Structures are given as structure tokens and as C-alpha cells.
Amino acid sequence: MGEAVTGGVVNMAAKLEIEPGSSNAYHTGDWRTQQPVYQNKWPPCSQVCPASEDIQAWLALASEQQWQAAWHKLAERNPFPATMGRICYHACESACNRKHLDSAVNIHALERYLGDRAIALGWSHKSSCDEARTQRIAIVGAGPAGLSCAFQLARHGYLVTVFDAQAEPGGTLHSAIPDYRLPKSVLAKEIDAILALGIELRLKHRIGKEISERDLLDQFDAVFLAIGTRQPRPHPYDDGTGKAGSSHRVTSGLEFLHRLNRDEPLIIPQQVAVVGGGNTAIDVARCVRRLGADVAVVCAQDPHGTHQQDLATEMPASLTEVIEAETEGVQLIYRAGVRRLVRSGAHLSGIEIAHVDRVHDRQGHFNPILFAGTEAFVAAELVIFAIGQEADWQGLEGLQQTTEAEGVWVGGDAVSKSKLAASAVGSGYQAAMSIMASLQGKSLVFDAHQKTKITFRKMQLHYYRKQLRREGEMNAQRLDGFKEVVNGLAEHDAVDEAGRCLSCGVCFECDNCWHFCPDAAIIKKEDGYAVDYDYCKGCGICAQECPCGHIDMENIETPAKASTS
Amino acid sequence: MDKRDPFRHNVLTAGHRACSGCGEAMAARMVTDLIGPEAIYISATGCLQVFTTHNQQSAWQAPWIHSVFANSAAVASGVEAALRAKGKDTPVVVQAGDGGTFDIGLQCLSGLIERGHDILFVCYDNEAYMNTGVQRSSSTPHAVRTSTSPPGRLSQGKQQLKKDVISIMAAHHMPYAATATIAYFPDLKAKVEKAMSIKGPRFLQVLSPCPLGWVHDSALSVTVSRLAVETGLFPLVELEYGELTGVMRLVEQKPVDEYLRPQGRFKHLFNSQDGAMELRHLQALADTRIRRYGLLDAHTQWDTAHAMQSERHGRGGYWRGSEHGR
Ligand SMILES: Cc1cc2nc3c(=O)[nH]c(=O)nc-3n(C[C@H](O)[C@H](O)[C@H](O)COP(=O)(O)OP(=O)(O)OC[C@H]3O[C@@H](n4cnc5c(N)ncnc54)[C@H](O)[C@@H]3O)c2cc1C
Ligand SMILES: Cc1ncc(C[n+]2csc(CCOP(=O)(O)OP(=O)(O)O)c2C)c(N)n1
Ligand code: SF4
Ligand code: SF4
Ligand code: SF4
Ligand code: SF4
Ligand SMILES: [Mg+2]
Fold first, then answer.
1. What is the ipTM of this complex?
2. Whole-prediction pTM value?
3. What kind of architecture, by CATH, is found in domain B23-308?
């Protein structure tokens, strides 16, 4: 030892013979054969949301009470949160990973909460472009598809004009959905906020009538057709007047709802039968109950939950809607089809129904077989057929044939298989992206992380606390008029509910990886984490213990240089 | 100095030579960062000492002394007495393996406690002499395969039971003795902070899985340590002056199989009649510990679900003072 001793006191300044160095000089990173990589994933809720909302992202902001930021994040993909939070059948919740822990996050209630907050506080949408553009785009149809497309294009600086044949915007959301599910004022306020981006709206303009197809093509650089399905599918029975069609005894669901929503006077007898198993049938039946009549729904399929494997033979209407309808006294007659309308002279006394055997034929078409000898009588003085609807291309035959390459896009219910408002919104978004790419001469790009999916099996659910799902309260006086059935969440419940999101596949800064790395190879920074590959030995603990599955272990040929969360 | 991380000292820094996934390295990194770089650390011979001081390179960013295998507690007693003589209150911390605690270090440790030194003794319990090639220690659980307790015709691994060292510590009537493990950082943090707030001898037994000696996947160190607690095989308890003052309640008791299966050191139990009996024996040992400490029905604020919870934006880091960031 080279220490100097003077009068029994060690001279601390003297150098040791062997000077210790830091182990930092030794890079244990050379040892590893696999390495952790931080990787955002696309959670199941977003995978199934027809509007492709980044649900995890806006829930995270909501849980921190950054309400306005959350609303902007949501609106990026869906400018109708208050509307959608009320009427979307929320496939997101059926897919939510949280159901494997306790119960799904109440996504739709939070969506509504944000939308209602935006309406109450008068928030405006942000434009995401400072470039002034000169190209003009025409949109035919002011339903959710048309307005979603208009919203995206206007946000990006394009000049947008929306045409609609009706006197009010909103499409089917306005004309058919009853007030007890969607108050008209809510829809109107959300549409106002969209139009405030500088969109021109021309109501009572039917293409092919008030304005021609040719004018549209000449005056605009691109056209988006979002005309919905507004033509009721005809029913094959005559009502005693000698011709098939609509009268005060027999009508279509769509016609009935349109008249109701336009506040037209309706004469409703005491007994009504609704034919059909979809959401429209249920809406019609619930409206009839509110008008004070008794109503039976005749549906070809079985009740929910009877065919786990073969969902095609279950009633297609949403289960929640069916339950609410039954609570309100709607009678449901399953596995039954109409044989004929029963008349006494000109008077309609009801329908004759029979047992349905097979619902769909070999080609998968709805084509029920009715068994003889199983007939039954359902008394009704009004029969409403809610058996589907089609797009009305009249006056649009030319545009219908025109392709995207020639500047015409089509979307929404008119062409999508899934006839849902959120699908229409998603379809409008896709069309806008495609139109912008085409006008800018670029190819379409989508977010890369949306390709990496995540299931609950990749997650460590034991890191999360069980927490009760918060629900909006049910309105006790709901059959009294057309008041909303479900109330919104209170603010404290909204915070708690948003906090229930597991943040599937997206780092929520829990510190687990940082705490657990035995090699101090994970660095915590102000805005996330980074793997220090100089030292990472590739043990895999960080990936194993990441609650939300954000970290992947990948096999390596050559060690990586950097990965940040 | 390693200053890579703005939220932590890294008292035990990177570049150490522990096996990939080492539970002891993880435990020591957590404990020493919770205590901080102002303490004097004494390490008994063992893996932690060897892998942190290799080839003239130290992983310690704090004053650190290596004692021999048996006498870390005695060395620490001397350090503490000297500091006291100089009027200093620098914390003194011993770190030793189970061999250096349960076996060869036991009498020095007992002396330290009996003399009442103001020292925290931390035992990183990996249940065998790992550094010399996985020989059995008195901490090795019943029926475990080690290189000196191979299963065969005469026995299914180690014949004896794991020594109940925490009871031995408590029997010294010492101010604070507790068990902890890496899977529950908030619990470990609370115990280290409590220990550091108490004067006199304190003892912490930290279960530290060893992928090499326990023969499990390196990614499973935390999972295995969690299962040791959830099965009741390793109760998390606190004892003050011999009295049980805290237990971590089990929200749900897991069967011991779940803990044993991922570990190669128990593999021999799963393919023979004798093994099956030992499995029942291990289950009975877990049940006994659960009964003894009331792990399923204790009235506590801590339980296994609560202590696991991950929260958005961290569980809080290592700094106790506000001047160090969050
Ligand atoms: C009774 C009922 C209840 C429903 N309930 C729900 C629900 O709860 N949840 C849900 O997700 N979905 C529901 N839907 C479906 C949803 O309403 C539709 O999926 C959605 O409105 C389709 O949007 P869209 O923009 O494609 O078409 P639409 O909303 O139908 O809008 C099309 C618009 O185009 C206009 N138009 C058509 N032709 C022309 C033309 N030639 N010139 C100018 N304008 C034209 C129409 O006037 C209309 O305003 C329901 C549908 C019905 C019928
Ligand atoms: C007196 C003495 N006997 C034996 C050894 C060899 N030796 C070094 S480390 C060690 C085992 C240490 O086991 P443990 O204390 O449990 O620590 P671990 O390595 O398992 O962390 C042994 C036996 C020694 N250094 N000194
Ligand atoms: S639009 Fe529908 S599916 Fe998408 S998040 Fe909202 S409720 Fe869920
Ligand atoms: S927990 Fe959150 S991120 Fe995961 S599926 Fe549910 S809502 Fe989506
Ligand atoms: S825990 Fe640390 S050493 Fe292990 S793989 Fe992750 S970063 Fe690498
Ligand atoms: S362990 Fe926690 S901090 Fe680390 S990546 Fe996963 S969520 Fe983020
Ligand atoms: Mg050991």
C-alpha cells in the first residue's frame, strides 16, 4: 500500500496502488441474445371502434381531467362524441380487455360526458393546417358520413360544401332516431361546432333536382357521396286497398319515425304490431309505447344468448335496446314470420304469424321457411314493417358510375356493410384521407402502431386494482313522453371511470420496468423511459412485468442502440 | 460517477457481473437506492460482493467495505462504534447472503444485536450458497435440489426444513425485524424507510430469486418472488421487540404448485410418488405459515392486491427530500 503515515494519521490524499474504477466501464450489453423494445400497441377497443378512435389516448387525458385535450383527441376521429356516446352500440366495450379483470370500461358514457362538456362550455374544434387551400369539395348528404368527411377536409384547410335534400342536417340521426335516445338539440350543437370550421351547408338541395350532377362535377375538385339508405324495403303484403305499400294501417318503420321526428300528427290505434328484428324495429316499438299503445314485435330470430356459435340466428338488435324495450312493456315474439295480413272487410284486424324454421338460405340471404300448422293470430290495427332499407340512387345514376380516379368517392350506409353511425363517421374519415391524398398526389399512410395489436394475454392484470364500473342513472319517468332514458355521468364518476382504463399496450409510466431492471439499464426521464443497451443483459423481466404489454422482447443479431417508451 | 438517471442515484450501478435476471442484484439496487449514497455499506463474501467488485471495477457509488464471509456484522459493529466515537451519525448497513446470515454469519449478527449497535443488517435470501455453485444452506427450503442435496433414492432434495431466521431475530428482542421481497416494491420501500427511521439494530430479510440456482427463466424472478408470497410460503411480516406488528394479507391463497412449477429446483417432485408426498408436505408448510401469521384474515391496510397496484405516473421514486425532483 502506498499510503503515507504521518504521526498516526493516514494521509487521505495519497493514491492507492490499485485505483478502483467504475463497473460502468464494462458493457454487459454484450451478453444479451434478446432485447426489450418499447412499442405502442393498438388496443382491442380501438380495433373494433368503427370510427377508429384512439380511445386509450383520450381516456388517459380524461383521467387526468384534461377534459378539453381529451375532447380534441376524441374528435380527431369522431366529431360526434355527445351523439355517439348516446347511440353507438359500443362494440369497443364488448372488446375491452378490462372485462377479463372485472367489467369493461364505460367508454360510451365517457364519450358522452366529453361531448356534453364541450357543448356546455362551447368548445371549438381546432384546425390542423395553416396552409390556405383552394380546392373545393362537394359532399352529398349531411349525415354522419358526410359531416365527418367535411370535418376532416375543413380541418385541413379545404373548401367544403355539403348538400342535403332535407330541411335539417344530421341525416338519419336527425330523421329517424327518437328523442329519448338522442335529443335533437345535442345533435344540432355538435353539427354547429363542425360547421363552424367554415363549412358551407346547402339544405333542401337534392342532387338531380335542385342541382344537377354535371354542375357538381364542374364546380368541384372532388365529390363525396354519402346518401345513406333512406328508401324502406317494400313489404310483399297488400293491406286491403288492393296495392302493396303504405297507408294508415300498414307503414314502414322509417316512414313512421320520419313523421314522428317531424312532429307530424299520427293516429295510433291501441294495438300495434312491428315486424322486424333489428334496431329500427325496437326503436319503433319503444316509440309506440311512448304514444300510449300496446305493441308486439314479431321477429324471425331467436332471443339473445341462445346461439353462442351461430349469431346469425339471433335477433340482430342490440341487447341493451331489447332489454330496455322489454322493461318498457314491449312484447317480443321470437322465431315468427308473417303469413298474411288479416282483414274483416276494409278493416285490418291483425296478422297471421307462423313458426320460422330456417332463417337464412344456403346463400346466406334472409329467406325464412314458415311451418304450416303453426299459425297464430296477433291482433293489430296498425302494422309497421321495419325490414330494412336501401340507398336511393335516383337522380345520381351518373355519379354512381363515376370512380375515385375521376374524382367521386362514395361512403357511409349507402355502400358499407355495417349500417352504424360510427361506421359512417369512420367511412367519412377514410374518404377524407383518400381525397386529400389524391388531391395532393400522395399515397395514403396510416399510423404504424395500429398494426401491432394487443390482447389481455400479453398483459399482467394482477397489477390492476378491481374497481366498480360507473354507470349513468336510468330516468325513472321514462315512458312519460320522449325524455332521455339514460342520464350522463357526474364529473367525479367520469374521472374514476376514465381511470379504469388499463392503457392496453401503451405505457402509462407505472415505473415497473425501471424499478425491476436488475442492471439499472432502464433510465427514467421526464417524459418516459429509455433502455440503456450498453448494460441491458436481456433478462426479459421488464417485458414480463410491464402491466400493459408495452414492452416486447425481440431476438437479436446485432444489439440495438436505443429504444424509448 | 454514473449520473445517467435523474430520478435515482444508482448506488449499485450498471456494469456489474450478476447473472441476467438476478433477484439479488435487483433487491440490492432497490434497497441501497432507498437508503442513499451517504451510508457506509459492508458486504459479506457472496454473490453480491463478487459481482459488484470485479477486475478492479466497483459497481458501488457509495463507501463500501468487503468483510470476510463470517464477520460482516463484527466489521460493521466496529465501523459504527468508530463513527459514534467521532460523533457522526452516518448510517451503517450490512449486506449479506443467506449463507452469511443464517449460517456462518449468525453468531456475529447475534452479537451485533445483543450489543445494540445502530446498524441495519440486510440479508438477501436466495436460499443457497449461490456464489460457490448452489450448495444447500440452512435457508434452503425443504425438498429443494441443490448440488449438495441431490434428489435420489434416499431423499427428495434437502431433507431438513428452512431455518426460521426471522423468529430467531425477533427472539433477540430487537427494535425491528421484517421480511420483504422484490415483487412488492412499495412494501419494500416502506420497510426500508421504517428501518432507517429507527435507532438500534434492525434486520431485513429480502427474498431474492436466483435464476441460476432456482433454475427458472431469467424473466420470471419477480413473478416467482410474488408467488412465494401469494402461496404463503414466504410470509411478509414485521416484528418489533418480538411482537408481530404487521403482516401483508393475502387477498387470495395460491396453491404451492404455481410457485414450484416454474422452478427447476423442484422439478423432481413432479414425477414420482415420493415427490407427490413432498408436494403435499410443502403445501402443509404453506398452510401452517398462513395460520401462524393470520395471513388470510389479518386486519391490515396492506394486502397483496394493494401492494401490487400500478399507478399512472409512477409509484414515487427513491428520493425522500423534495429537492431531488418528484
Ligand atoms: C331507426 C334507426 C335507428 C338507428 N339507430 C342507430 C343507433 O342507435 N346507433 C347507430 O350507430 N346507428 C343507428 N342507426 C343507423 C345510422 O343512423 C346510420 O348508420 C347512419 O345515419 C348512416 O349515416 P350516413 O351519413 O351514411 O347516412 P344518413 O345518415 O342516412 O344521411 C344521408 C343523407 O343524405 C341525404 N341525401 C340522400 N340522397 C340525397 C341527394 N340525392 N341529394 C342530397 N341529399 C341526399 C339524406 O337526406 C340524408 O340526410 C339507426 C338507423 C335507423 C333507421
Ligand atoms: C470462510 C469461508 N468459507 C467459504 C467461503 C466460500 N464462499 C464464498 S461465497 C460462498 C457462498 C455465499 O453464499 P451466500 O452467503 O448465501 O451468498 P450468495 O452467494 O448465495 O448470495 C462461499 C461458501 C469463503 N469465502 N469463506
Ligand atoms: S364510436 Fe362507438 S365504438 Fe367507437 S368509441 Fe364510441 S362508443 Fe365505442
Ligand atoms: S382497458 Fe382501456 S385501452 Fe384497454 S381495451 Fe379497455 S378501454 Fe381500451
Ligand atoms: S430488465 Fe433490464 S436487463 Fe432485463 S431485459 Fe429489461 S432492460 Fe434488459
Ligand atoms: S412497465 Fe410501466 S413504465 Fe415500463 S413500459 Fe410498462 S407501463 Fe411503461
Ligand atoms: Mg445465498
1. 0.96
2. 0.90
3. 3-Layer(aba) Sandwich (3.40)
